[in-house]
Amino acid sequence: MPDRSTTPSEPLVKNMVKSPRAPVALTALGALLLITIIVASFLIASRSTALTEAVLQTREIRGAATEELLTLLDAETGQRGYLLTGQAEYLAPYATAHKRAQQVLANLVRLSRGTPSVPIGIAEIRNVTNEKLAELEQTVELRQHRRLAEAMAIVLTNRGKMLMDRARADLMRVNADADRLLVVNLSALERYTTIQRGVTAVGGVLAIVFSGLAIWLLMEMIGKANRARVEIENFNATLEQRVADRTTALTLANEEIQRFAYIVSHDLRAPLVNVMGFTSELEVGATALRNYFESEEPDLKAAALTAVRQDLPEAVKFIRASTGKMDRLISAILRLSREGRRELVVEYVNLRILFDNVVASLHHQIVESETTVDIQPLPSIRSDRLALEQVFGNLIDNALKYLRPGRPGKITIRAESGARFVTVSVADNGRGIAPQDLQRVFELFRRAGAQDRPGEGIGLAHTRALVRRLGGEIDLRSEFGVGSEFRISLPKSPAFDRSTTS
């Protein structure tokens, strides 16, 4: 518990922070003015941004309307050339303009939804444009089928000209409305720009004035604080140390809370499933023995012997492995609740033995999923055993959980030893992870891919936190549909090793 007694320097510090009323009033006034300028600048900048966006969108509407009119004219020119000559080269510009007119119309419709200030009458423009394009398409098709007379009859009705005149009038009205709105918005934008310059200038002047006042007050305070400099420095040093200690304690406590949640919801689940699976085998073996002893039929002797010699010992062996892991995890939880945090304990860890224990605790899932686990030669390192069991146990459990259906599972574990680090690789041929999700999987409570497996999305986040606390780093390489490889780099001499060589 921190010492709350008053130190000799505290009264002096309290006297130092008591300022005369005039400096306090000047400081308050300066702060108020600066806050007012900041708020005004923010509001002006927000309004200027909105006006700029409105100007840009209005220009886009004007450009789209102009392009639509020119495109309709191009389509009509191609149509007339084809009707008069029957030559196919006129169809290419017609077809291009016909398709582009539809695209530009769609863009104009989209832009009009966000600009209610431009009364463009989009429904009328869409209707007349579609009618004009349909009229052009009808006459071209008639000409293609050698029905020139019918096509010319449609042209001579002047319906196409009337539609074109209507489209031209509507689109020119759009340009006129857009021009009017551009003038209004540009004038407003120029006005806000002028105001912003004035506010900036006033703010600059006030900043210079109050900076001068602050320098003057600072010099006055320095003259009065010479006698207390040593005491204040000592007090600040003590305060900084207290803050640093409390920050470290809070950080460790937060990490332990996350670790506790992870163990309860994730790590204990795998050995528990293993125990449940081999409990079923115990029941099968016990049934075989009971049937044999109750009936004493010779045919049941072979099944009873198999249960006694193979099934029951094997089930007991793997149950012990799983309960051993559960016991270590539960013991860690009890230590966390009793001590508030767990310090990392450095010891020599044979990675081959560690992986054998992890695989044994997951044996039921491995057999059930018909997965092959290939453990290549692994070194021994100095690190925290429990943290390593949680890291690699979670990676192998995830590999088993996300195998690709219809393909025999394979997990390969190997290591590379460098000058300062040992890199352990856990690779599988499972579902794989899409490129956009490679970093997402390490985020707390975030999961990637199909959500068809139980989990809270904290396993890999906790794994990365553990690896980094061990002084290492974890890297993920994956190809969707092919498999994933987790590479964990661990230091040979961890920074948290405070023990002496035993």
Distinctive features:
502 residues; alpha+beta; two-stranded antiparallel ribbon; 69% helix; 9% strand; flat
Overview of this structure, please?
- The longest helix has 67 residues, at 159-225.
- Helices cover 69% and strands 9% of the residues.
- Strand 4 and strand 5 form a beta hairpin.
- It has helices spanning 10-17, 21-85, 91-113, 122-144, 148-156, 159-225, 229-267, 269-295, 301-339, 351-361, 363-368, 385-401, 459-469, and strands at 347-350, 371-375, 380-383, 409-417, 421-428, 473-479, 483-491.
- The two termini are 34 Å apart.
- Strands 2-4-5-7-6 form a 5-stranded mixed sheet. A two-stranded antiparallel sheet has the order 1-3.
- Mean pLDDT is 75; it is low at 1-18 and 332-340.
- With 502 residues, it is an alpha+beta fold.
Topology:
Blueprint: H1 10-17, H2 21-85, H3 91-113, H4 122-144, H5 148-156, H6 159-225, H7 229-267, H8 269-295, H9 301-339, E1 347-350, H10 351-361, H11 363-368, E2 371-375, E3 380-383, H12 385-401, E4 409-417, E5 421-428, H13 459-469, E6 473-479, E7 483-491
Helix pairs in contact: 2-3, 2-4, 2-6, 3-4, 4-5, 4-6, 7-9, 8-9, 9-10, 10-12, 12-13
